[in-house]
Design a protein that fits this description.
By secondary structure, the chain is an alpha/beta fold. Helices cover about 40% and strands about 20% of the residues. It is elongated.
Length: about 325
């Protein structure tokens, strides 16, 4: 895992990534029919869960920690609070129930920003890109803070044609294609909860982990068994077996658990601008050095500007300029 303290990247001092034997820090998309146990499993079995309830499906689940999310700005407030050390100590897994409603609220938020009714309200697919970016940024923030994610979805059946031109029914998560693409790229597992009945008529529930011509499922660990009993213990045992197979012969890369990564706190903008001004003043006051400094600013901002006119929304660019100015300062003759 990278150690990027003080906003400094150092690829020469990276530790090999380690994979934990538990579900802490894993990213799951779990879907199935209504009342199949999705929410109960995630809210009671996953490590130290916080249930972000985009719909109230937890009324019958006692002793869980849940926060109701009615609008996208509510979720953004939760994301901000997840940065707190107290939150990191309290929670390991952020459960999203359900992720299709989460995506709908995200879409509504983007449309409200631009004062339009839907994503077709601006040309060239601008709002579609904004929607995908907003959704991806929110989920990515959770992962970068070191939490695991469990995305809960309902199932839907879509009819499509196979390679022979035959119509087939495909069971998949109920999500629009952009949300499904975003989440599919993120998660380690897409798990389908399904049922089978024995000869005596008894129902048995399973996790299905592999895709078929009729089912969307998958895992980053290709050797995981395709059907697992619907229990936390069975799921963990199957995942551990698959992970052990994937790292066989590579000692030390599989550990009991991985600690959350440290988070770099965003500095006040005034502090950033003050540091930039102090660095700027340390250079010789000659046209040559002024040109070098201005070239750095132009590289980050895409055009010549006075660094002192940068706004708070451009803080990331100013931080980049500061790092380059520090490197340039090393070349100034003493």
């Amino acid at each position: 895992m990278a150690n990027n303290s003080n906003n400094t990247l150092d690829i020469l001092n990276l530790e090999p990534n380690k994979v934990s034997r538990d579900l802490k820090g894993k990213y799951l998309l779990i879907y199935g029919a209504p009342k199949c146990g999705k929410t109960h499993f995630c809210a009671t079995q996953l490590p130290k869960p916080l249930l972000c309830a985009f719909e109230k499906g937890y009324a019958a689940i006692p002793n869980i920690k849940a926060v109701d999310i009615e609008k996208w700005t509510d979720f953004k407030k939760v994301l901000k609070q997840l940065e707190l050390p107290e939150a990191k100590a309290m929670y390991d897994t952020i459960v999203i129930d359900t992720c299709d409603i989460m995506a709908q609220l995200c879409e509504k938020y983007v449309c409200q920003q631009k004062g339009v009714e839907d994503l077709t309200g601006m040309p060239y697919g601008i709002l579609y890109r904004m929607y995908s970016d907003e959704l991806s940024t929110a989920l990515r923030k959770i992962t970068m803070l070191g939490y695991g994610i469990a995305l809960i979805a309902q199932q839907e059946v879509k009819v499509s044609k196979n390679s022979l031109g035959e119509e087939v029914e495909m069971v998949q998560p109920k999500l629009d294609k952009r949300a499904l693409s975003t989440m599919n790229a993120l998660v380690d597992f897409i798990l389908y909860i399904g049922s089978e009945w024995d000869k005596e008529g008894n129902q048995h529930r399973y996790f299905y982990t592999r895709a078929t011509p009729y089912l969307v499922a998958g895992s980053r660990f290709g050797e995981i068994t395709p059907k697992i009993d619907f229990s936390y213990e069975a799921l963990i045992n199957a995942i551990v077996e698959a992970m052990e197979n994937s790292v066989r012969g590579k000692e030390g890369l599989l550990v009991d658990h991985v600690e959350k990564s440290s988070t770099i706190e965003k500095r006040p903008f005034s502090e950033v601008m003050s540091e930039a001004g102090e660095l700027w003043a340390k250079f010789p006051k000659t046209p040559e050095w002024t040109e070098k400094k201005n070239n750095i600013v132009k590289e980050f901002f895409g055009q010549p500007i006075k660094l002192s006119t940068a706004t708070e929304t451009q803080q990331e660019l100013v931080e980049g300029v500061i790092e380059e100015l520090k490197e340039l300062l090393k070349t100034v003759p003493s």
